[in-house]
Each structure stands twice: as C-alpha cells, then as structure tokens.
Design a protein that fits this description.
heterotetramer; A alpha+beta (425); B alpha+beta (362); C alpha/beta (263); D alpha/beta (284); A: alpha+beta; Cytochrome-c3 Hydrogenase, chain B; six-stranded antiparallel sheet; three-stranded antiparallel sheet; 14 helices; B: 2 domains; eight-stranded mixed sheet; four-stranded antiparallel sheet; binds flavin-adenine dinucleotide; binds iron/sulfur cluster
C-alpha cells in the first residue's frame, strides 16, 4: 500500500476524554481512532465492593455521563436484588436523568460543536461575537446542572441517587426553583433547534446504517427493558451478548462493538430514528417542521437530534416538577443479597448496558458496555469516508481534511473516558 | 453591658408564675411576636437540633441535647466580617440587620455556656458581631433530666439563676416560670392571661423534681481538684491510649457550648477588585491550629492536641469561678470514636481502671 | 494586575473521568474566568493549543500510560506553578485501586495476548512523577474552591489549603451524624473538607471521594478501630477505605495495626 | 474604613519607606492616614499590630520602632508565607490596614532605674529594637545597657549596620553593643552563641532586667547562663509567638498553658516572665 499523505492528530480537541486519529491517504485509505487514554478497569475495581460502593465507583467512569452510569448501576443492582422502587422514585430518577441529558447536550452543542460551525477554535473565542448564543448555551447548561444538583446532590457524580430511592428527597421549594427557570430554558432550547437547523451537513459520508436504541418502558424514555434496531429487530436486554459482540483492537484501549457483525450507531439520532413516534409536545412539532433534517445516513444529524431532545426533556422535567408533590418515603431496603441483574438505559451518547452479579451484597462480576465503545467502529467508517470523499474530490490540504475529520468525530459526541473503563468478556 | 446590669437589679425581686400544659402552645405562638422562634426539634432517629419553628407542635420538650449548641446563634459557624475593596484598601462591615429572636428550651448548662462566651467575647475588646446578636436574643430556659453523659452537677452548672429572660421548670401539670430579666417581665405581663399564681402544690412538685433530678446524675462529688490532677497526670499512659483512638475530627469542640476558636480567611473575587473576610469555627483538634510560619507546630502530635482540649476545658474561668467545661456531655455523645470524656476525667480523679463504659446513643 | 499582564494558564487532563475539567468549565463565572486569564491550553474546550510556557498549569487525572507520563513532564517543564486537580491527580483516583502484581494479572485477563500499540501502567498520582505545588482536591472540586484558587492565583498569591476533615463541615452544618446514629461506615473523619459534607447532608455516609486529609492527619487506624467496634470485618473496612485511599502510603499498615492483636 | 466601634476594623496606613535589611527581611515605615489617629495612637515596646493585606489575610507583627515617635511606626517583616510574601512587594505610597496595638508589651515602667540586657537571636532583634529605642530615647531613666545581637552569619545579623553606626553614641552613653555570629568563618567580629557573651555585658546582674527574643530552642541555654551568672529570674522577660487570627483574645489559637494557668498569648502576652515560662509546659 502506498501512503501519500498521513493525517495524524494525537489529541482531538473539544471531545470528552483523550483520543487521537490517524488517517492514511493513498491508493488505499484507512482511518483509525486511537484511544490512548489509559484503561481504568472498572469491572475489576468494583469486584468485592458493596453494590452501593460499586455504583458510586461506576459514576466515576465518566463525568458527562455520571448520572447515567450511577443510575444504571443502581438499576442493575436493583434488578439483581429484586428491588421494586416507588412511583415517586421512578419520576424523580427520570427528572435527574433528563437533567443530565440537557446539560450534556448543551455542553456538547455549545462548547464543542458550535465553534466548529462558526469557525472558532473555542467557545470563548466565539462568545465575543455571539453573546446571545453563548448565553443560551450557559443557560441550558445551568438549568441541567441545577436539576442534577437538586435531585442528585451535585451536577457531577450524583451521590444522592442510591439503591432503593434517594438519600434525601427534594422539597417543594426545589421543585419551584426548577419550574421557575424552566420557561427560559425551554426558549433557549427551541432557539438551539433553530440554530442547528441552519447548518448543512457535510456530504461524502452519506451511508445507510443500523441504529440501535432502547425499547422504552413508557413514552420517549431513557429506561427500558430491551433494545430495538432500525433493521426492525428487537431483543430483550438479557440477550444482549447474542447481538452485540465486543472485541479488542490493538490501536485502542477501548473495545469495539458490533451488532450482528457490522458497525452501528447509537445516540440521540438513533433514538429519534427508532422512537420519535413516542415524542410529544413542542419537540414533536419542531421535528415535524424539520423532518428532513433527521437523516438516518449522516452522523451530523446527531447534533440536530440532540437539540430536539433538549426541548423534549426540558418540557418533561417541567411537567413532572409541576405535577409531583413529593411525599416523605423511606428508601426501599433490598431483602436479597445476591442475584444477577441486567439494565439498559439511554445515556446522552446512546445505549448503556450493565450486567451485574452479586454475592453477599458484594459485586462478584460486572460488565459494562458504553455507547462510545458501541459506535467507535461506525465512527471509524464515517471518518474514513469523509477523508476519502475529500481526497477524491481533489482536496489535498491535510489541515482541511483533518478539520473535517475532527468535525465528524465530534458529531458523535464521543466519550472517551466512558469507553476505556474496559470491558471483560 | 446595659442589659446585664438590669439583670442584677431584678434578680433581687424574683417573680415566679405558673403556666399550665394546656396553655403552653398558645404561649409558644405568642413568643413568635418577639422575633423568630428557634427551638429543639427531632431531626433524625436519635438527634435533635434547634431550628426555626413554624408549627409549635414540632417542638421537642424532652430533648437532652441538640446537634449544635446555642452558641451557633451568636457566633455563626461561618460568617462574613468585612467586604473588602482591594483597590481602596477599605474594609466595610456587611450590612446585617439583626432582628430580635427567641431561643426556646435552653438548658441550664447551655445558659452557663453562653455566659462563659460573654466573658470571652465581651471582655476588654468587645466583639461587635457577637454582642449585637446577644442583645437581640431572648433566652427561654427549660429544665431537664440528665442522661448518662451529663455531669453538669459536678461543674455546678446544673442550675442557673441568671442569664435567661424566662426559665421554665417542669411540673406535673405545667411549668413553674421564673422571670430573669426586664424582657422576661414584659413577656409575662403581655401574656398575662396565660399565667397563674404558683401554689403550694407547685412548690412541692418543684422540690420533688429537683430532688429526682439530682438523684439521676450518675456521678456525684466535686471536680474542683481536676485542674491539679490533670497537670499531674499529663504523662500518664491514659492520654496515649485515648488519643490513639481519636479521629481528630473536631466534633467534640464544634458541639461544645463553650468552644469558640475561629479561623479567618480572605476570599478574593475573581475580578481581583473585591474580597470578603470571613470567619468560621476552627478546632484545636486540627493540625494547623498551632502551626506557625516556618512549619513549627506548637501542638505537633495528635496527643498534644487531644490533651490540649482536656486542659483547656478544665481550666479556670475567672468570670464565673467555674471551669470552661459546663458538663453537658455533648463531646462524648457526639464523638464518632466513642471517646468518653467524662470517663477519662473520672479515671484521672480516681486513678481507677476504666469502667466498662458503653457508648450508647439513645 | 493590568490586562496586559494576565496570568497564562494551561488546563490539562491525563487519565480520568474528565469531571474536574468539566467542573472548571462549568463554573457560573466561566466567562469572567476567561477574561481574567490567558487560557493557553485547554484541549477539552479549544482546538487551539500546544504546550507552551504558562504561569499556572492545572492537571487533572492520574498517570496510566507512558504517554501520560511524558505529557506530564512536558507540562511541568513549561509551568511555573503546577496544581494537581482532583482525586485522580492527587491520589490516583478510583483507578489507582489496582496495584503491582494484581495489575499485571488484570491487564492480561482483559486484553489477553493482544499486543497493544501503547503501553499502559499502574494508575498513579502525579506527585510520583513531578513536583506539585498545590492540590485542589475534590471528585470533582467544588465551585467555590475552584473560584478561590483561581482568584488567589490571579492576584499573584496562592490559596490556603484545608487540612481538616469533612466532619468539621458536617457538624457546622448541623447534619445528623450517620456514623454515630446508624453505624454506617462514614469516611468523613478521614477525608479532607471542602464539600460541605454533602453526603451526610443527604443521609448518605461519606465515601471519601475527596481523598484523605493531607499532612499525615488522616487517621485510618483510629477510624478502622471505630468501624471494628461497629461490627465491621477487616476486609470490609479495607474495601471501603481503599476506594479513594489506596495510594495513601500507610493505609494498609494502619488498618492492619488495629487488627494485629486479633488474628 | 469603618467608623463603628468594631474591634476588627482597620486604620489605613501609608507605606513611606521600605528598606532591605537582610535576605528576606524588610523594614517598613508607616504613617497613619487619619490625622486624629496619628495624633492619638500610642504603643508600648513589645506590643504588636495586626497588619492586613486586603484579600490575603492578616498577620501579627511586633512594632519595632520607638513608641516615642508619634504618628509613625516601623515594622520589620520576614518573608515566610502568603501574607508576608505580599508585604514584601509593597512600595512607598501603598496602603495597608492596621489595627492595634495589642498585647501587654514589656513592663518598661518597672525597668526604670535598672540596667537593661537585651538578648536577640535570629530575627529576635525585631521586637527588642523597640525596647532598645525606647531606652535610648529615655536614656536618663535606665542604668547601663547591653544589647547582644546574634545570628548564624554576618549578613543575617538583623539591624547590624544600624547598631554598628551607633557605636560612638553608645560609647558615650554606657551602652554596650555585642554582635556575634555562630557559623561565619569570614566574620571579623565576635563569634559564638548569644549566651556566651552574657559575661561581657556591662550590666550588674543584681539590678538588671533582661529581655530575650529568639527561636524557641535558644531559650533554655540563655536562661541557664543568665541564672548561673546571678541574674534574677524574676527579672527575665521573653516575648513569644503563636498563630493568631484576632490579636484580642477571641479566636483561641494562641491559648496556651495548663489547666491552672490558661493564657492568651495575644492579650496576656506576648511578653512573659521566666516563671510563667517554666511553670507552663508548651509555652515555648
Ligand atoms: C506577637 C507576634 C509578633 C510577631 N512579630 C513579627 C515580626 O515583627 N516580624 C515578622 O516577620 N514576623 C512576626 N511574627 C510572625 C508573623 O506573624 C508570621 O510570620 C506571619 O503570620 C506569617 O504569615 P504568612 O501568611 O506570611 O505565612 P503563612 O505560613 O502563609 O501563614 C498563614 C497564616 O497563618 C497564620 N500564622 C502563620 N504563622 C504565624 C505566626 N508565626 N504567628 C501568628 N500567626 C501566624 C497567619 O494568620 C497567616 O496568615 C509575629 C508573630 C506574633 C504572634
Ligand atoms: S467539654 Fe464537653 S462536657 Fe464540657 S462543656 Fe464542652 S461539650 Fe460539654
Ligand atoms: S470528637 Fe472524638 S474523635 Fe473527634 S476529635 Fe473529638 S475526641 Fe477526637
Ligand atoms: S456523618 Fe460522617 S462526616 Fe458527619 S460527623 Fe459523622 S462521621 Fe463525620
């Protein structure tokens, strides 16, 4: 193979975590996402820990998704121990989870992606010229952070969410606080949709693909009992190993996953592709206005999908905050101390799968598959196609190609920290 | 202090009234007109703390101790001293409007504790922050029955006759109320319909209560020789053993009604133009309490710090002729390591082997 | 300091959950922070950055690869003041729980015989490799402390670090003590204050995310004794204390000491 | 600045001059901004002030000038940490906040009519300088005076030049100045520790008051030598240091003593007598 040009960036900026990319251009074109961040062995370090400690440790897999990790780890322990939580707990967890969605999407769209679209190296550089945009971004971020702080005790690593319920329940005044800033946040989210609807998706990477998303319990939710694919297939979470395989590749401390042997996509786009009929309210209206932007075959549609989701989740949070009158209730104490459990939820970046075995109240084994590990192979395909398309249509400047390559990576909102927690097979 | 002088004057003309159990909630509601009402409420399975009262039915009358002593209302756990303008080098006191407030249900030991704090904070140099709050606070005392950790009797702080506006002594069907200040008189006058005269039976009941209370203390005698004995036993192994258990967490000092060490810090704003000078509770159990520039520490080891508290608490407070320790037992009750402060003092006093002390919280 | 003399800062991440950087990025006053400093390097937020000389470098994350180690050394060489941010950088973080032989075993178990393109190492705190001037503890650090640290640096001074435990704040805030009341293994007495005793305030025992109190006043031995008295076994105690304390040199020794006379 | 009676309020003071004394130690001259304060402010030798650097903190510093000089005072400050680092950056014209004076100071009234022996080690000369200046300004009130100033090296002798420059006056005034170093082979003058020079003092042990200041480790040897040389232990005074946040007996950091003898260094000290010291473990 003759390599004419190599594009290499050891440290992709504006993503969560540390990864590099190498694209070799020549008669053959290859692309590799190097996940060089050191492995962190979460499955190992949780072994022998109580399920409470394990859930708290798992939250440290990633900061952007600390709420999803914590709540999924809690859900898997509850599944293993046969704990049924109250209706109130379910609602409060949804709120907490949705709060994380809003913050994570806002950070991604405003701090990571918007500078790309507007041609700035960073949001700070962009802030001067686009103060209104930045204001929206910070408003949405703060709103999400506030919801998480109220329900989870803080915006990163929510210690208040525990097996059986919550350590401390929110008060009436807390709900009022959420409602109070809800309207403004919703406006900002709608403005975000309008902003992202204006940008044209880069071409060269249109490629049909499989989208995997949760089979939700009720409504357009983040909790569910199985996974559905855009190829029409659907399976229970207990069977995930039959459909999703993981393998080690030499250039990455993160494993790569395949669905029935091929790369696939997960995330906001996949959720909307598979579950958008479940949407309601403003988000539904907006989506019907901009239906054509929800492109199955182009990963850049993911940013638009995130914007739509923000609208939906804020509206839901506000609804819940308005309806719920928090009653005093005790956490449910598990009766069992052993068992095997499965849990799947939708993290901001896509499906998050936990499998846990408990003995004597302590973790005997744990397996976690994160969204980034799932979409890494698909991302490599898109990166390669992006580079190939540009190269073949005559672009030779490696910086220019590199820039587009990075934008492609960012469109996925990859979470490298999540991916290198390292999965045991 | 103007107020204290009045107290001395009125003390000679004592006034006692009675309030029946049926009237007590009315009385508590009436108290709210004198300011925000703070009283002990149950905050968890075993603990009580003083909180602002909305519904007077929440008030706990049979509490023994609160998570934090009454001092928290006079020296806030954390407070701003100054707003600093860096460029002009000015230090301005924050504009704090101090509203009158009522502390209900303060036990005798805590009232003595506050008087000890007065001795420190109002002596020579008057701490304005403390003084203003002290003047705004109305103190309503409440009699109590001791638990195993209480030894206020050994400290002579089990009964007070000064330092409160009203003091309620439990009777079978109500409370014998002693008036301790002009404010106390005013309250009684203004709520006259709630009070009745004290009867012979009430006096008998009061006597009986006091008798019962004295008998309930687990230890009797005197601690007057404690100061000498502590110095003489400073090298005993007891201090090695006990300080070995200590977590250096400072709960003992924070929950002590008379511990008053504070630290001061300047917190600059990010713009570099303004700052706040704050002060917050410190503890001699922390490493940096005795640390000076250059790294020398006047209380280098955990044992030094541990022993320091025993020395400091037991030393002589000239103002009242007692020790700084009022015998409330908080430091034992709130010590996560289960270190028995009273038990250790008793060991010092009698040089006996430690009794099997069960550290129980109930 | 005039505008032309803005301090230059770099914000770097090694291996971690990136929460400390995220927390720094999400402080309310982020735009005012950006105005007060020249942010020379912050790859999480900006694609404009190579490691250049800065006045203050903030480093999050532990060292888990050779590349991390090299990067850290380059950061140190180019910084006048280096601040370790968060539990990973200061104590190794949760990933620092696997040590020595155990590490080889685990690595083999997971990656099997697959030869990797990069070399991974045991996760270690950054002070094992370079001189650290200040620690900004937390998992992640608290907003008020981030702002305090930044503000003191901006003034050309440096922060006063806390050397007392979470219990102090727990008590000042008047939270019921879960260790006394329910016998739950609260690590508050061991752990450096700053969080305002968030977990006890939520009825949850502190599990030590901020890491041990510095300067040798984290009394693992005394707390292990207390836990033993509440009925916990040695292994249980270790399993809990090691989550954020495993790389504290004397941890094991101190816990063992308490159980010495038993077995 | 505050006009209320808040005891923690500060007087604004202007830095007039900054001298480099020895490495890391500077002498700063201040003046009160407010003329009323300048007029009325007085202090005693051995007292200290609380000096604030806005947004950084407050530190206790001994006054090292003669109390006879109205409206002005000098502080001699060693650079050792957050606040003192910044103090060293002060330039003439800058402002600081000051409150005080605090502490008991040396009982100079009691000293009257007696000989004076001042023994300084390290930066101990800083607080003793105010006693010395006071004695010089009121020369007729005291008998013979000896100052022993000691340090490790010639260039770490605090106020060396100032003391050297006074030699002629001193000769005429029965003041003996002994400067000695312990580790400097190039030093042309006297060598050895402070206590080794007590025998060279011009003071009569029977009627001498002694003031000592230095790092904690020097005290024992100095005391022993003094007592061996027949100085009266009841007339030996030292000035101590402790962590302090308020300077007025509130914050508790400087509490020292035993249960029969509890003292605040800031208000009961910082000057203590020999018997206080030996009956109170931990005071030094
Ligand atoms: C009565 C008295 C007189 C003093 N006189 C002088 C003098 O004339 N010249 C001089 O250079 N130094 C003097 N010192 C020591 C001086 O106060 C300390 O060097 C100074 O506080 C160090 O502060 P820093 O912030 O620079 O150091 P850091 O080590 O950063 O100290 C942090 C904080 O700790 C406290 N602290 C630290 N060391 C001391 C200490 N030794 N005493 C009290 N508080 C301390 C202060 O509040 C300080 O802000 C005196 C101390 C006392 C108690
Ligand atoms: S030392 Fe303990 S017993 Fe004594 S007053 Fe303080 S808290 Fe009460
Ligand atoms: S409360 Fe107990 S463990 Fe904590 S510092 Fe005091 S004596 Fe030590
Ligand atoms: S709950 Fe934990 S942090 Fe709070 S006082 Fe008890 S042991 Fe300390």
């Amino acid at each position: 193979m003759k390599i004419e040009r190599e594009i290499r960036n050891d440290h992709i900026a504006r993503i969560e975590g540390k990864a590099g990319v190498v694209v070799e251009l020549g008669d053959e074109i290859t692309a590799k996402i190097n996940v060089t961040e050191g492995p962190r062995f979460f499955e190992m370090i949780t072994r022998g820990k109580t399920y409470e400690d394990a859930a708290t440790i798992c939250s440290r897999i990633c900061s952007f998704c600390s709420v999803p990790h914590k709540l999924t780890a809690v859900a898997v322990a509850e599944d293993a121990l046969g704990v049924e939580v109250s209706e109130q707990t379910t609602i409060l967890r949804d709120m907490l989870y949705f709060g994380n969605m809003v913050e994570s999407h806002a950070l991604h769209l405003y701090l990571f992606v918007a500078p790309d679209y507007l041609g700035y190296p960073s949001a700070f550089a962009m802030a001067e010229k686009y103060p209104q945009l930045m204001k929206h971004g910070l408003e949405l971020k703060s709103y999400g952070a506030m919801v998480q702080s109220i329900l989870g005790s803080r915006e990163i690593h929510p210690e208040n969410a525990v097996v059986g319920g919550f350590g401390k329940l929110p008060e009436k005044s807390d709900m009022e606080r959420i409602l109070k800033s809800g309207t403004e946040a919703l406006q900002a989210a709608v403005a975000t949709v309008d902003f992202f609807a204006e940008y044209e998706y880069p071409t060269h990477i249109d490629l049909p693909r499989n989208h995997l998303a949760i089979r939700p319990h009720r409504g357009y939710s983040v909790y569910g009992d199985g996974i559905s694919a855009s190829d029409g297939f659907s399976f229970d979470i207990e069977k995930y190993r039959e459909f999703i395989q993981e393998e080690v590749v030499p250039h990455s401390f993160a494993k790569h996953s395949r669905y029935r042997e091929s790369p696939f996509m997960v995330g906001a786009l996949s959720r909307l592709i598979n579950n958008s009929p479940l949407l309601d309210g403003t988000a539904k209206e907006l989506l019907s206005t901009y239906r054509s932007l929800l492109r199955e075959d182009n990963c850049f549609a993911n940013n638009f999908a995130q914007a739509i989701e923000m609208v939906y989740f804020i509206e839901k949070i506000n609804e819940m905050a308005e309806r719920l009158t928090v009653k005093k209730e005790e956490r449910v104490q598990p009766e069992a101390s052993e068992g095997k459990g499965y849990a799947v939820t939708e993290a901001p970046r896509g499906l998050l799968i936990y499998e846990m075995e408990l003995e004597n109240g302590r973790v005997a084994s744990l397996n976690v598959i994160t969204p980034t590990a799932m979409f890494l192979p698909m991302m490599e395909v898109d990166v390669r196609n992006m580079a190939k398309g540009m190269w073949e249509s005559g672009y030779k400047d490696p910086d220019l190609i590199g820039n587009k390559v990075e934008m492609t990576i960012r469109a996925y909102d990859p979470c490298i920290s999540c991916s290198v927690h390292v999965v045991r097979l | 202090m103007q107020k204290l002088i009045y107290i001395f004057w009125y003390i000679r003309k004592m006034r006692y009234v009675k309030i029946a159990n049926e009237q007590i909630h009315d009385f508590l509601n009436q108290l709210k007109q004198y300011g925000k009402l703070y009283a002990p409420v149950k905050v968890s399975d075993k603990f009580y703390d003083r909180k602002e009262i909305d519904d007077v039915c929440d008030i706990a009358f049979d509490y023994v101790r609160t998570l934090l002593p009454a001092k928290k209302y006079f020296i806030h756990p954390k407070e701003k001293m100054f707003d600093i303008d860096i460029e002009n080098g000015t230090y301005d006191e924050p504009e704090e409007k101090i509203e009158p407030f009522v502390l209900f249900g303060v036990h005798a030991c805590e009232i003595v504790g506050l008087r000890i704090l007065d001795g420190v904070y109002l002596r020579d140099y008057v701490d304005t922050y403390y003084k203003r709050r002290r003047e705004a606070g109305i103190i309503i005392g409440l009699s109590c029955l001791p638990d195993d950790h209480c030894f206020c009797n050994l400290r002579r702080s089990d009964f007070v006759d000064i330092g409160f506006d009203l003091f309620l002594h439990e009777l079978p069907d109500g409370y014998l109320v002693r008036v301790g200040s002009p404010t106390g008189h005013k309250i009684v006058d203004e709520c006259a319909e709630l009070f009745s005269n004290v009867t012979q039976e009430d006096i008998a009941a009061f006597r009986e209560f006091e008798e019962k209370r004295q008998q309930m203390f687990s230890h009797h005698g005197s601690f007057d020789n404690m100061r000498y004995l502590l110095e003489l036993t400073a090298r005993d192994e007891l201090w090695d053993e006990e300080s070995e258990k200590c977590l250096g967490c400072g709960n003992c000092t924070n929950t002590c009604p008379t511990c008053r060490c504070y630290d001061v810090q300047d917190i600059p704003d990010i713009d570099g133009k303004t700052a706040e000078r704050i002060r917050f509770w410190d503890s001699c159990q922390f490493r940096s309490h005795g640390l000076v520039a250059g790294g020398h520490n006047f209380r280098e080891t955990k044992k030094d710090r541990f022993f320091n508290r025993y020395v400091c608490k037991n030393s002589y407070f000239y103002g009242l002729g007692t020790s700084y320790c009022v015998g409330c037992g908080n430091c034992t009750y709130f010590c996560p390591a289960g270190i028995d402060y009273l038990g250790n003092l008793l060991r010092v006093r009698s040089a006996s082997e430690p009794e099997e002390v069960v550290h129980e919280h109930n | 300091m005039s505008d032309t003399m803005k301090p230059k800062v770099g914000i770097h991440g090694l291996t971690s959950c990136y929460g400390c950087q995220l927390r720094m990025a999400s402080v309310q006053e982020i735009l005012r922070v950006a105005q007060r400093f020249d942010i020379e390097y912050w790859s999480m937020l900006s694609s404009d950055g190579t490691i250049r000389h800065v006045d203050i470098a903030f480093v999050e994350g532990s060292v888990t690869t050779m590349a991390d180690e090299e990067e850290l050394k380059a950061i140190r060489e180019n910084a006048d003041v280096l601040v370790a941010v968060g539990s990973c950088a200061i104590h190794g973080g949760v990933q620092g729980m696997i040590f020595g032989e155990e590490y080889r075993k685990v690595f083999g178990e997971i990656y099997g015989n697959c030869t990797m393109d990069f070399e991974a190492k045991i996760a270690e705190p950054i002070h094992k490799f370079v001189k650290v001037d200040h620690n900004l503890p937390g998992c992640p650090p608290e907003e008020d402390e981030i702002m305090y640290y930044l503000a003191t640096f901006a003034m050309g001074s440096y922060p006063e670090e806390k050397d007392y435990p979470v219990c102090a704040e727990c008590r000042r805030n008047g939270y019921p003590c879960v260790l006394i009341e329910r016998g739950e293994p609260c690590l508050g007495p061991l752990v450096v204050a700053g969080c305002g005793a968030r977990c006890p305030g939520h009825n949850i025992a502190c599990f030590g995310c901020r890491g041990p109190v510095p300067h040798g006043v984290a009394w693992f031995d005394s707390l292990a004794r207390t836990f033993r008295e509440k009925g916990m076994e040695k292994e249980e105690i270790k399993a809990r204390m090691e989550i954020f304390g495993r790389q504290y040199e004397k941890m094991n020794e101190m816990i063992e000491k308490v159980f010495e006379h038993e077995d | 600045m505050n006009t209320t009676e808040n005891i923690y309020s500060l007087y604004k003071c202007r830095v007039l001059r900054v001298y480099d004394l020895i490495e890391d130690v500077k002498l700063l001259l201040f003046r009160f901004e407010n003329p009323d304060i300048a007029e009325s402010w007085t202090c005693k030798p051995g007292q200290f002030v609380q000096l604030s650097m806005p947004a950084l903190g407050e530190v206790p510093i001994s006054i090292c000038s003669s109390p006879m000089r109205r409206g002005f005072f000098e502080l001699c400050i060693k650079k050792t940490g957050r606040v003192t680092d910044k103090i060293h950056e002060l330039k003439p014209g800058d402002f600081v906040g000051v409150r005080g004076p605090y502490g008991n100071g040396f009982p100079v009234d009691e000293f009257e009519g007696s000989d004076l022996l001042l023994i300084a080690a390290g930066i101990g000369m800083a607080p003793l300088r105010s006693v010395f200046m006071y004695a010089v300004d009121n020369r007729w009130k005291f008998g013979n005076i000896t100052v022993i100033n000691s340090a490790k090296f010639g260039n770490t002798l605090l106020f060396r030049k100032e003391l050297e420059a006074m030699r002629d006056v001193a000769e005429a005034e029965n003041i003996r100045i002994i400067q000695t170093v312990t580790r400097d082979p190039d030093w042309p003058g006297r060598v050895g520790r402070a206590q080794e020079h007590i025998k060279h003092a011009n003071t009569d042990p029977e009627k001498t008051y002694v003031c000592v200041c230095g790092p904690p480790q020097v005290y024992e040897d100095v005391f022993n030598t003094l007592i061996k040389n027949n100085y009266d232990p009841r007339k030996i005074y030292v000035t101590l240091e402790r962590r302090m946040k308020c300077g007025v007996g509130k914050c508790g950091h400087c509490i020292a003593g035993t249960s029969t003898f509890l003292k605040y260094i800031c208000i009961d000290g910082p000057v203590f007598g020999y018997y206080d010291i030996i009956s109170t473990p931990g005071l030094i």
